[in-house]
Every structure is written in structure tokens, then in C-alpha cells.
Amino acid sequence: MLGLHGELDLLGAPLLQEAIDQADGEASAIMVLDLQDLQFVDSAGLRVILAAHERSRQSGQELALTPGTEQVQRLFTIAGVNDHLRIIGSPDEVFV
Amino acid sequence: MPQPPEGEQTDVDAHSVGDVAASVLIDAGAVLASSLDPSTTMGQVASLTLPRLADLCVIDLRDEDGSIREVAVACVQPELARELEKLRVEHPLNPAGGHPVAQVLRSGQPVLLPEMTSTLLNSFAQGSKHAEFMIDHGYRSAVVAPLLARERTLGALSVLRLGGGTPYGQEDLQLVCELARRAALAIDNARLYSEVHSVERRLEAILVNLAEAITVVDEHGQTVFANQAAADLLCVSDPEELTSSRPGEIMPRFLVLDEQGRELDLEHMPGRQLFAGETPGPLLVRNIVRATGEERWLIVRSSPIADPESGRVVYVVNVFENITEVKRVQLAESFMAQASRVLASSLDYAETLQRIARLAVPQIADWCAVELVNEKDEIERVAVHHPDPAKLELAEQLNRDYRPSLDEPAGVPEVIRTGEARIYTDIPADALAQYARDNQHLELLSAIGATAVIIVPMIGATGPIGAITLVSAESMRRLSPGDLALAERLGRRAGTAVENARLYTERSRIAQTLQQALLPESLPDIPGLDVHARYCAAGELNEVGGDFYDVFDYGPDRWMLVIGDVCGKGPRAAGVTALARHTLRAAAMSGQSPTEMLETLHRALRRQPPGADLCTVCLVAAHNTGAATQLAVALAGHPPPLLIDRDGHAELIGSPGTLLGVLDPIEILETKAELRDGETLLLYTDGVTDAGRPNVELGETGLIELCRQAPRLDLDSLLEYVEDVALMHAKLGLRDDLALLGLRASQSVPSQR
Fold it and tell me: Do residues B378 and B405 make contact, with C-beta atoms less than 8 angstroms apart?
């Protein structure tokens, strides 16, 4: 599980990419991106999340996300990606 | 209290008592005025009562702890006086006891004892020895009066008659009381004086040892007091040199300037202003020692000492606080901050360096020149400054006729070659003569009048690219190692700025060329519709990719508006941008609907090498039917456009659709709308709404509000206004590209508010 804080933009995106690459190495069945404390996402940040989604889909791993702040949710809506991602209420839900 | 009854009062000749009184008080006046030493004075007061008023006189004072101390005894029999003194030491008076002196000290009231019987004497004696003494010496009659001053009882004055003399009466009591009052005043004054004196001594000790320089000047300008710190500050060996100097003799040894470099004379000094009746505040001065060129920053504070009676200022106390170090650091930091701002303000480095030169004068030096090595390896003067145009002409002439070449051994060429800064704190005439190429050169150099010079290299990535020269001349300011360090920082900063500007100009030229290829060169003229666009790239112009827009016709009276955002920057993003633009054009030409066009682009992106090329697009198909313009809005992961009515009310148009290039399948929904006269459709990228984050981003609601509040403007001005506000929000720097595309039904002029 990865907890994200602050802003996921052009500057933050490479950091998330790195974290996801590391987590991939652990090859768990499910990866949760916890966005609850994330203040902001732009297209660069979204791109990293979608790339992770694409990769997990191909490798049979599951990727789940918790909703971020209002801005983050608004961006997900505008980008039309909500139907493609597994959005869960809280990080614990995946274990239920 | 043994107040004698009226009847016992002895009948005394009033005339003679009056004479005694007058003579005693006159003598007392003379004695009390003669000295300020209380113990001497009290002895004299006691003596002068003999024998006119008393055979024995004793003055006791009350000490701070309440004990009673005899300070003066006078007696017609000197032997008796000595014995009494001894007795008083051995048997001090009990302040709480019945002795008349103790009673008077407690009550503050005088006591008259016309007849003292042995019973009475025994009643207040301090032991049998004391009683015997008083009885043996024939204590007969006494008056004890309090020494009263400022409502305090300082002590008591006792007069006694011994043996068979005339007993005291009421008039004697009054006289003794008056004498005691005067003696008390004298004691009180003496005490006050000695207190003031010790305060003065303490003050002087403080002033003398203070680290801050202090002088006291009288109304004629004569220094009457100075401490060692003042002597050090004013460059003399000791305070006496200051107090013995003539008024106005010291000041000309210094060049005194205000913060702006204007020369100040004596009349500007706060001390002088105090004498002139003004109330000056502290004055910050730059003080330069003419003899050495040493520079100090001083705060001068002056306080008046007025004559208590006339209120006229008779002395002024000057305190000089030396804040040179603080001021140096502060000036250096403020200078560097200013310089950095100037250097970052523009890519036109020639102009920037000229501003730097202006900034350095007079803050650091009297002259500043900047030289760069050009591509032909020549040293080129790019900036020079001196406040006096006539002097500036000298520099121009020097540069014209005696421009240094890079291989010269000293000066600017040496610094540029070695990259090592040089400081010349002393410029001897023969050194100048040696440096000069001919007489005219020497004349010009001499006319510059340099007293100190600093030359620092401007360092770029590959080494020195130029040099900055700072010259101290008429100000005679000494250039310190601190100035050298500051100048070196400036050199590094300026070197980096120049180099960046050079690289940047190159790169941004390439980037702009490329960007322009990705954006339409000009927008088409559409009958009945206004169309305008604005675009502002983030990343300081030197990256390509990101936002794009396009407007083209795809049939008679049918226009397609495109705005989009390709995720990422650089060549790959530029490739995707070009792909998007051309794919959409081709799709439109083949008669596809907006939804179909977006699906076509999506498939094209999916055929690209993997790497999640994410692209958001907003398409608006506009069909001008004459009556109104029919709009079809299709969104693919892109923020919805705004439809703004003539009153500025804006609403978001369109429903969210999937962004392109990553997820399958995509879902796009077309929304129909109508654009009526004077209404505006505003397409934008998230660079507009995200501007200003993380603090005060504009957001969609902010943008709607902005459109509502915007003045009624033509379309181009409205876009410019929105862009300005977004840029203002993004004062930390634009983090993302910003694109705006507007369409307005322009058949009639928008209504005025």
C-alpha cells in the first residue's frame, strides 16, 4: 500500500513512479494507492497512476485507489477514468 | 512630655533675647553657607551657641537604622565636652528611652526643660554613670529641638545651661527651633549634594567605560566631555585631545554622508539642531575617515541638557553607535538580493548588466564597469556607470582608445585569464605610470582618480567569461575584504546569469520555432463569429509539447474548435501533439462526428509505442445557421468549456468523457448547445484553473466568477484578461502550459453594463 501526500504533479510524478516500481518488485497480489491525503493531481500525476493501472492489468495484479480530496476527485471525473479504476472507500476494504 | 507650665517661665528681658537670637542666626547663616561637609558644619553650629545661648550644646543625628549618634558637642568647659563624647560612645542613647533627645526624635516636637531636678535627670539617664555626670556638672535647664527637613526628623539640637545660669524660656525655645531648622536644611542639602555627587561620579564612571562613543558639547560647539570610545571613533589618542580641540576642528577630518550618499555638514547633526531648538531623531550616517578612507556607519543620537531655570539647551550629549558591521552585512545582502532580482528580470543581459552597474554605484563603489569576452576573444565593454556624465565620458574615451586586449599582464585581462579576483587598496602614481601605454592614457587614468580597485571574474560553466570592475575614487571609500567577497559573489551570479541568458536565447528560439509549428499560424476568419486564442508555455519557454489548440472548417459554415493537453514535455510530447492535431483534422475532413474523431485519435495513440501517452481533448463543432450557432461539445478527459452570456454569467458545458490513449474502451458523450448574439464560448486547459496552486488556485468556480466580474471586453481582451489573472495567481511561476480559445457570436456589439 502506498500512501500519497501533498501534490502529484510534474514534479511529484517521478517520485510516485519510483515508489510503484519498488512496490512492483514485491509482487503482491494487490496494490492500494491511498489518495486520501493527496491535495492535488494533474495530468502528469494521473499518467503515472494510469500507467500503474495498465501494468497491473497486464500482470494480473489488482490496483485499487481511495478517493482523494475534492480537486482530485473532480480531476478523475473530468478525465473519465472512474469507471476504469477500482475506487474503494478505505484502504482496509481490500482485505475484507 | 514634660512641657513646663506657663507660670514657671522665667522672666527674661525680651530685648536681650532678641539680640542674641539675631546674632546667633546671622552667625549660623554664615557657618551653614560656608561648607557642605555636615560634620564640620555641625561642630561650628554647636560652637556658635556658646556662650550666648548655651553652656553646652549637643547635636545628635538619627542614623538610618534608628540609632542615635552624637555628631557635635561644644561646651564652655572643653574638658566636659570630651568627657561627654566619651560617655555617649560608652552609653549610647536608647532611641526608645526617656531621654529628651530620644523623645524629640520620636515626636518631632521640641522640648523645653526650664528646671531639671536630680529626680528628672535620674529618670532619663542612661545608667548611673550618666546620671552622676549630669548631676555633677550641674545640668540646670535645657531645650531640645528637632532637626526637621522635608518633614523628616534628621536629629536633635540640645542646648543646656549649667550651674546657676538663667533657665530657658519660650523665646529661647523658638530661637533654638529656628536654629535647628536651619541646621537641618544644611544637613539635608549636604546629603542631597553628596548623593548627587556620587550619582555623578557613578555616571561618569559609566560613561568613561562605555563601549559607545559619547561626547558632551556646549552651546559654543566646544566638547566638554568625551570618553575613550569617542576618542577612538574620532581618531584621536585620548579624550583630552577632543576637549582641548577648538569647535569645528574635528568634523572636517571626516566625510559624512547620509544613506543616499549626500554629504552632510555640521548643521545636519542632531546636536546642532538641538541647540537650534529643533527635536531631531537619531541620524544614520556613513562616515569616512578622510585620512585613511576607512568607512563606518554610525547612528548619532543627541539629547539636550537644559538649564533648569531658563529651559535653554546648554549642553548636548551625543551618543555614537557604530553599526558598521551590521550595516555592511545588511547592505551586502540587500545588494545581492537586488542584483539577483535584476539578473533574473530579463534575458537581455546587456541591459541587465547595465542595471547591475547602476546598482553598484554608489552602494559599493564610485565606478562600475562590466566587460565580457566576445566570440572573437576580444574584451568588450558592456556596461559602465558613474553618476557624473562628464566622468562617464572619461571612461568611454578610455574604452574607445585604450581597450585592453586579453593578453595584457594586469588588470581586467589578467582577471579574466586567471579567474582570480584582484583587489588594489593602494594605487601609487608610479604603478599607474607603468600601466599606462602613453601620456594621454596616463592622464585619463589619473582623471579617473581611483583610490582603490576591485576586479572580479564573471564565471560561467566553462570558466571566466568576463569581469566586473569596481572603483573607489572621489568618495575615498576604502574597499575592504568584505567588499571583495561581495563583488566575487556578484561576479559569480552575473556570470551564471549571462551564460544562462545566452544558452536560453538559443534554446528558446528552437523551442518556440517548434511550438509554433504545433500551433496554427493564424486562426481563420469566420463570418459572424469572433475567434481568438492565447497560449502561454510554462517551463520558461524552453520545453515543447503540452497544450495545443486548433480551429478549422470541415464544411460550409461548419467549424471545428480543438483544445487539448498532451501529458509530458519535450520531443515525445511534441510528437504526440503533432499526431493529435493532424489526426483530428483528417478525421473531421472525412466527415466524422466529434465522438468518432476522438475515437480515431484514441486508436492512433494506442498504436504508438507503449509509454502511456495521455491526451485530453475538448472538441466543439460549431454550425453557423445564421440565426444562432449550434454547438456540439465532446470531451475526452478535458475540463468542460464555459458558455458565457452577455451579462457575464457562465456555465460549464459538456459531460465528462474518458481521456485518450490509455484506457479501453473510451466513453464520449456529445452535448448540444446554442451560442446566441454576444455570447461567448471559452475553451481552456487545466493550466488556467490550476494556476496559483497550491495556495489560491483559480479553479473552475474561480474562472466562472472571473468571467462574471470581467469588464465587458471584446473577445481578445477578455482572453488576455483571463490570462493575466491566471498568471497573477501563478506568481510562483507557471507550472503548466496555459491555453485559451474563445468563440463569440459577434453579429451585434455586446451590451454595455
Answer: yes
